[in-house]
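Researcher: We plan to redesign the surface later, but first we want a full-length starting point. C-alpha coordinates attached.
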Protein backbone atom coordinates (compact mmCIF):
# COMPACT_ATOMS: atom_id res chain seq x y z
CA UNK A 1 0.00 0.00 0.00
CA UNK A 2 1.46 3.34 -1.04
CA UNK A 3 1.81 5.96 1.70
CA UNK A 4 -0.57 8.88 1.35
CA UNK A 5 0.81 11.88 -0.42
CA UNK A 6 2.02 14.58 1.92
CA UNK A 7 1.38 18.17 0.91
CA UNK A 8 4.50 19.89 -0.28
CA UNK A 9 5.68 23.06 1.40
CA UNK A 10 4.67 26.21 -0.42
CA UNK A 11 7.37 27.57 -2.68
CA UNK A 12 8.46 31.02 -1.50
CA UNK A 13 8.01 33.76 -4.08
CA UNK A 14 11.05 34.50 -6.18
CA UNK A 15 12.09 38.11 -5.60
CA UNK A 16 12.21 40.29 -8.72
CA UNK A 17 15.63 40.90 -10.20
CA UNK A 18 17.02 44.24 -11.29
CA UNK A 19 16.03 44.96 -14.89
CA UNK A 20 18.90 45.88 -17.20
CA UNK A 21 18.00 49.57 -17.28
CA UNK A 22 17.91 49.62 -13.46
CA UNK A 23 21.35 48.02 -13.26
CA UNK A 24 22.87 50.48 -15.76
CA UNK A 25 21.31 53.53 -14.12
CA UNK A 26 22.34 52.32 -10.68
CA UNK A 27 26.00 52.10 -11.74
CA UNK A 28 25.83 55.60 -13.22
CA UNK A 29 24.19 57.02 -10.09
CA UNK A 30 26.76 55.30 -7.88
CA UNK A 31 29.56 57.09 -9.70
CA UNK A 32 27.76 60.47 -9.79
CA UNK A 33 26.68 60.35 -6.14
CA UNK A 34 30.14 59.24 -4.98
CA UNK A 35 31.67 62.28 -6.70
CA UNK A 36 28.96 64.92 -6.21
CA UNK A 37 27.67 63.94 -2.76
CA UNK A 38 30.60 61.86 -1.43
CA UNK A 39 27.82 59.34 -0.83
CA UNK A 40 28.40 56.62 1.76
CA UNK A 41 26.22 53.99 3.43
CA UNK A 42 26.41 51.77 6.49
CA UNK A 43 24.51 48.62 7.42
CA UNK A 44 22.97 47.74 4.05
CA UNK A 45 23.90 44.11 4.77
CA UNK A 46 20.90 44.12 7.13
CA UNK A 47 18.69 44.11 4.02
CA UNK A 48 17.90 40.51 2.96
CA UNK A 49 19.24 39.46 -0.42
CA UNK A 50 16.34 37.15 -1.32
CA UNK A 51 13.32 37.49 0.95
CA UNK A 52 10.85 40.40 1.13
CA UNK A 53 11.32 43.22 3.62
CA UNK A 54 9.92 46.64 4.48
CA UNK A 55 12.35 49.58 4.52
CA UNK A 56 11.19 52.54 6.63
CA UNK A 57 13.11 55.74 5.97
CA UNK A 58 13.00 59.37 6.99
CA UNK A 59 12.23 61.75 4.14
CA UNK A 60 14.46 64.74 3.31
CA UNK A 61 14.36 65.17 -0.47
CA UNK A 62 13.10 63.91 -3.81
CA UNK A 63 16.43 62.04 -4.09
CA UNK A 64 15.56 59.73 -1.20
CA UNK A 65 14.27 56.72 -3.21
CA UNK A 66 17.53 56.71 -5.18
CA UNK A 67 19.62 57.14 -2.04
CA UNK A 68 17.97 54.25 -0.19
CA UNK A 69 18.25 51.82 -3.11
CA UNK A 70 21.73 52.78 -4.28
CA UNK A 71 23.84 50.18 -2.38
CA UNK A 72 21.27 47.37 -2.64
CA UNK A 73 21.65 44.82 -5.43
CA UNK A 74 17.93 44.27 -5.93
CA UNK A 75 15.08 46.64 -6.81
CA UNK A 76 13.22 48.56 -4.13
CA UNK A 77 9.56 49.29 -4.90
CA UNK A 78 7.78 52.47 -3.87
CA UNK A 79 4.24 53.78 -4.08
CA UNK A 80 3.54 56.66 -6.46
CA UNK A 81 0.48 58.61 -7.57
CA UNK A 82 -1.11 57.07 -10.65
CA UNK A 83 -1.10 60.48 -12.36
CA UNK A 84 2.69 60.26 -12.65
CA UNK A 85 2.33 57.17 -14.83
CA UNK A 86 0.61 59.28 -17.49
CA UNK A 87 3.74 61.38 -18.03
CA UNK A 88 5.43 60.37 -21.28
CA UNK A 89 8.57 58.37 -20.68
CA UNK A 90 8.37 58.55 -16.89
CA UNK A 91 5.37 56.22 -16.74
CA UNK A 92 7.12 53.49 -18.76
CA UNK A 93 10.26 53.80 -16.66
CA UNK A 94 8.29 53.55 -13.42
CA UNK A 95 6.37 50.47 -14.59
CA UNK A 96 9.47 48.44 -15.41
CA UNK A 97 11.09 49.67 -12.17
CA UNK A 98 8.42 48.03 -9.97
CA UNK A 99 6.92 51.34 -8.85
CA UNK A 100 3.38 50.78 -7.59
CA UNK A 101 0.63 53.17 -8.82
CA UNK A 102 -2.05 54.22 -6.35
CA UNK A 103 -5.03 56.52 -6.72
CA UNK A 104 -4.69 59.55 -4.51
CA UNK A 105 -8.44 59.97 -4.15
CA UNK A 106 -8.75 56.37 -2.99
CA UNK A 107 -7.26 57.06 0.43
CA UNK A 108 -4.74 54.83 2.16
CA UNK A 109 -6.56 51.55 1.56
CA UNK A 110 -5.21 51.09 -1.97
CA UNK A 111 -1.65 51.75 -0.88
CA UNK A 112 -1.98 49.28 1.99
CA UNK A 113 -3.30 46.52 -0.28
CA UNK A 114 -0.63 47.09 -2.92
CA UNK A 115 2.16 47.14 -0.32
CA UNK A 116 0.99 43.85 1.22
CA UNK A 117 0.55 42.27 -2.23
CA UNK A 118 4.06 43.22 -3.32
CA UNK A 119 5.58 41.99 -0.09
CA UNK A 120 3.78 38.68 -0.63
CA UNK A 121 5.39 38.50 -4.09
CA UNK A 122 8.88 38.84 -2.62
CA UNK A 123 9.55 42.55 -3.18
CA UNK A 124 11.51 44.99 -1.11
CA UNK A 125 9.12 47.84 -0.33
CA UNK A 126 10.31 51.31 0.62
CA UNK A 127 8.06 53.56 2.70
CA UNK A 128 8.47 57.10 4.04
CA UNK A 129 6.16 56.96 7.07
CA UNK A 130 6.43 60.71 7.78
CA UNK A 131 4.35 61.18 4.63
CA UNK A 132 6.18 64.33 3.52
CA UNK A 133 9.66 65.81 3.30
CA UNK A 134 11.16 67.33 6.42
CA UNK A 135 11.69 71.09 6.30
CA UNK A 136 14.77 71.07 8.56
CA UNK A 137 16.11 67.54 8.08
CA UNK A 138 14.87 66.19 11.41
CA UNK A 139 12.56 63.17 11.65
CA UNK A 140 8.96 64.30 11.99
CA UNK A 141 6.01 62.40 13.51
CA UNK A 142 4.88 59.27 11.70
CA UNK A 143 1.44 59.15 10.14
CA UNK A 144 -0.98 57.44 12.57
CA UNK A 145 -2.45 55.22 9.84
CA UNK A 146 0.97 53.74 9.24
CA UNK A 147 0.48 51.47 12.27
CA UNK A 148 -2.21 49.57 10.33
CA UNK A 149 0.43 48.39 7.87
CA UNK A 150 2.89 47.41 10.61
CA UNK A 151 0.27 45.29 12.35
CA UNK A 152 -0.30 43.26 9.17
CA UNK A 153 3.22 42.61 7.90
CA UNK A 154 5.13 39.42 8.65
CA UNK A 155 8.43 40.37 7.00
CA UNK A 156 11.57 42.05 8.38
CA UNK A 157 11.03 45.75 9.09
CA UNK A 158 14.26 47.71 8.68
CA UNK A 159 14.72 51.34 9.80
CA UNK A 160 16.75 53.62 7.52
CA UNK A 161 18.23 57.04 8.25
CA UNK A 162 19.22 59.59 5.60
CA UNK A 163 21.39 62.63 6.35
CA UNK A 164 22.55 65.42 4.08
CA UNK A 165 19.87 65.06 1.39
CA UNK A 166 18.04 68.11 2.76
CA UNK A 167 21.18 70.20 2.31
CA UNK A 168 21.62 68.85 -1.23
CA UNK A 169 18.06 69.10 -2.53
CA UNK A 170 15.63 69.70 0.30
CA UNK A 171 12.33 71.59 0.20
CA UNK A 172 12.73 75.04 -1.36
CA UNK A 173 15.95 74.22 -3.21
CA UNK A 174 15.84 74.59 -7.00
CA UNK A 175 19.27 73.13 -7.66
CA UNK A 176 21.08 69.99 -6.50
CA UNK A 177 23.99 71.11 -4.32
CA UNK A 178 27.12 69.00 -3.59
CA UNK A 179 26.39 68.29 0.08
CA UNK A 180 27.80 65.15 1.68
CA UNK A 181 25.13 62.44 2.07
CA UNK A 182 25.11 59.28 4.19
CA UNK A 183 22.49 56.53 4.58
CA UNK A 184 22.43 54.14 7.55
CA UNK A 185 20.40 50.90 7.62
CA UNK A 186 19.54 49.67 11.10
CA UNK A 187 18.98 46.14 12.33
CA UNK A 188 15.49 44.71 11.70
CA UNK A 189 12.98 45.64 14.36
CA UNK A 190 12.44 42.55 16.59
CA UNK A 191 9.37 40.54 15.74
CA UNK A 192 8.15 40.67 19.34
CA UNK A 193 8.01 44.46 19.15
CA UNK A 194 5.84 44.24 16.04
CA UNK A 195 3.72 41.49 17.62
CA UNK A 196 2.99 43.63 20.67
CA UNK A 197 1.50 46.25 18.41
CA UNK A 198 -1.33 43.88 17.55
CA UNK A 199 -2.63 44.25 21.09
CA UNK A 200 -5.37 46.80 21.54
CA UNK A 201 -4.12 50.26 22.50
CA UNK A 202 -0.48 49.65 21.54
CA UNK A 203 -0.46 51.64 18.28
CA UNK A 204 1.16 54.76 19.74
CA UNK A 205 3.81 52.69 21.47
CA UNK A 206 4.68 50.98 18.19
CA UNK A 207 4.91 54.25 16.24
CA UNK A 208 7.13 55.71 18.95
CA UNK A 209 9.44 52.68 18.84
CA UNK A 210 9.70 52.72 15.05
CA UNK A 211 10.29 56.47 14.93
CA UNK A 212 13.04 56.23 17.55
CA UNK A 213 14.85 53.58 15.51
CA UNK A 214 14.67 55.77 12.41
CA UNK A 215 15.91 58.72 14.50
CA UNK A 216 18.86 56.64 15.74
CA UNK A 217 19.81 55.69 12.17
CA UNK A 218 19.45 59.29 11.00
CA UNK A 219 21.63 60.52 13.89
CA UNK A 220 24.37 58.04 12.93
CA UNK A 221 24.11 59.12 9.30
CA UNK A 222 24.26 62.80 10.29
CA UNK A 223 27.38 62.21 12.37
CA UNK A 224 29.10 60.55 9.40
CA UNK A 225 27.91 63.17 6.91
CA UNK A 226 29.18 66.05 9.04
CA UNK A 227 32.34 64.24 10.11
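Model: Full-length starting sequence:
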Amino acid sequence: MNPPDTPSAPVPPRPPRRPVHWFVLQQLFRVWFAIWFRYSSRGHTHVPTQSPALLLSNHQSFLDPLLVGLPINRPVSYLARDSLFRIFGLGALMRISHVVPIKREGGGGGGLRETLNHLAQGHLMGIFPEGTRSLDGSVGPLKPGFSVLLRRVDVPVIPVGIAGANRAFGPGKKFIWPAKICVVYGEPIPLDVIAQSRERGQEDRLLSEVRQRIVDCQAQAESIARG
